[in-house]
Amino acid sequence: MAAAKNTELKVKSILVTQPKPETDKSPYADLAKKHSLKIDFREFIHVEGVASQDFRQQRVNINDYNAIILTSRNAVDHFFRMCTEMRVTVPDSLKYFCISESTAFYLQKYVQYRKRKIFHGKATINDLIEIIRKHKDDKFLYPCTDVHKEDIPEILDKFKINYTKAILYRTVCSDLSDLAEVYYDIIVFFSPSGITSLFKNFPKFKQNKTRIAAFGPATAKAVEEAGLRLDIHAPKQGTPSMTMAIEEYVKKANKK
């Protein structure tokens, strides 16, 4: 991908490095309509399941655990996928500790929700840990990707929770070769892995007049460490969401 060649600073096109929303009713759709913008979506990274033979090398016996910590739909999907591939019967007595209510509800895809012991936090490990601590005698399995934040293991270690990490899926860079000659005024990133994917696909990428937007401090740091200019950053006071931060920028850039 090359940087935008236009010499105008106005914003006409945006690439969001996430999956396209499932419905047309989204903040991005509203943003596009309100400011006559072309907004495209493309995942710069995706997850691939770890093969069962590779999982066996981790020497993790799923039946040794009576509780599981689930932080995303990916974790749910790949846990049950691995159980199927390894012919492990998930016991009805297994306790599920989910990072959020939406993740907990997603379990209905695999289990009878009302007949299972399912607990959930509000959105972060900080509120979920209070629930986990009430079951401190349990043995927890923590399914995750090979590239994961250390905040969850750190807080589990802090409270001496008996847990084991199980790498069930990997974060890999998507093939973006079809975007080589496509230009956008703004590219929006949500993780350091997105920046890694950008340069893996386009080692000679030059930012020039392309604006870079980043969500979260880790992503912002990755942008700067890659030698890129950070033009739009969220969350911050007044613009807690990415779309709000983009709109604030667009209003100023397109004012002329």
Characterize the structure shown.
With 256 residues, the protein is of the alpha/beta class. It folds into two domains: 13-46 and 184-253, 3-Layer(aba) Sandwich (Rossmann fold), CATH 3.40.50; 48-170, 3-Layer(aba) Sandwich (Rossmann fold), CATH 3.40.50.10090. Helices cover 31% and strands 21% of the residues. It has nine helices and eleven strands. The strands form two sheets. The protein has a six-stranded mixed beta sheet with strand order 3-8-7-4-5-6. Helix 6 (151-158) links the parallel strand 7 and strand 8 (163-173). It is elongated. The two termini are 28 Å apart. The mean pLDDT is 92.
CATH architecture of the largest domain: 3-Layer(aba) Sandwich
- Tell me the structural class: alpha/beta
Q: Order of SSEs, N→C? A: EHEEHEHEHEHEHEEHEHEH
Mean pLDDT: 92
Spatially, the strands of the biggest sheet line up as 3-8-7-4-5-6
Total of DSSP H or I helical runs spanning 4+ residues: 9
Which term fits the overall shape? Answer: elongated
* Percentage of residues assigned to helices: 25-40%
Poorly predicted runs of 5 or more residues: none
Task: Please state roughly what percent of the residues sit in beta strands, choosing from under 5%, 5-15%, 15-25%, 25-35%, 35-45% or over 45%.
Answer: 15-25%
> Would you tell me which CATH topology of the largest domain applies?
Rossmann fold
